[in-house]
Amino acid sequence: MNGFSEEISLEGHIIDSGILSKVWGTVMDLGGEFELQEIRVGRRKNETSYARMKISADSDAQLQRILNALQDDGAVVVSPHDVRTVPAPGDGALPDDFYSTTNLPTQVRLSGNWVDVSGTEMDLVIVVDPERSTAQMIPMADVRQGDCVVVGHDGIRVLPVERSREREVFSFMSSNVSSEKPKHLVIGEIAKQMRAARARGNKILVVAGPAIVHSGAAPYLARIIRAGFVQVLFGGNAIAVHDVEAALLGTSLGVALENGAPIEGGHRHHMIAINAIRRAGGLRAAVEQGILRSGIMYECIRSNVELVLAGSIRDDGPLPDVTTDVIAAQRQMRAALPGVEIALMVSTMLHSIATGNMLPASVKVVAVDINPAVVTKLADRGTFQALGLVTDAELFMRELADSLTTA
Length: 407
What we know:
Layout: E1 4-12, H1 19-29, E2 33-40, E3 49-57, H2 60-71, E4 76-77, E5 84-87, E6 106-110, E7 113-118, E8 125-129, E9 134-138, E10 148-151, E11 156-158, H3 169-172, H4 183-199, E12 203-208, H5 211-214, H6 218-226, E13 232-235, H7 237-249, E14 251-252, E15 255-256, H8 269-280, H9 283-288, H10 296-302, E16 306-310, E17 322-323, H11 326-336, E18 340-346, H12 349-358, E19 364-369, H13 372-380, E20 386-390, H14 393-405
């Protein structure tokens, strides 16, 4: 065995979910060694298993890298110590050896008790309130000088998502990106899951890109919203602008949606749409004044969908409803996420990745794009629970609308 070592334990359905073999592979891939010291195997479907092992490495830095990777799989450092914290050295600054979170449920040990960490999200830090014995994940920018920031590995427990015992679309097709999936069956199953989520009183989020409008899928998304299957919608300036352009002028990017023909002078249509909304005072005002009478934004306003439009440097206008401060937009998005059970991400790479980074692993994610690389990137960035569909936005939305609204 190498000179630097630490004991870890794993508990749960670690064998049939492949977690134990994954842990062994990670240790060896990172140049370490393991010694299995104890293992108890559950004999029945509902019984958990337990393993304890010693992890060794040639240096402390290498050992820390291995432990960092293993904690994402639910490994707990076997130690009698509570979680360690160090005061933040300044606003928006972190102490050395800070713990960076995953999107998995996490607990920390405070006064000998395991405490749930709230606000589950990847790439945040954990701040402890010693007086209340609580812990919360927060963005680096929100850390204030003197906050008790969790560091190291002691007293941290990550609860990995284990393989579902039920055979359903999100368990047997997740992270498997292909253009050859039986889309009609998959979309039908997605619709079934959406109905079940709404029956439980949970929310459905749509992250929408402008290709929804360009491809002619907007009427189908509007129909889904009208039927009550969207409670939150994230997007940028573009999805709103081109949706308004389609509603007011019948074009998207100056191209007639009815026949696909370019319209003379159509290059300024999106500017006409922006101007109409700005003169009205915003999307809600435009609906109330009878200026905007159809489309995705119209249905969102009518159905009181929580709408977060985050701006970018390339935006024209933008619309008054667009939040141009990206940190403020992140906070609005986070505030809208509690209660979301299913997220549909359609034809928007950057907004999908940003949203995926904010979602706990318990949220079921459907990523749809005509480009396989866009769908793959979402899983590559950490949203491993995503179901990827490589298909046209119009086809997906039409099939989904039919499945949700046809008796």
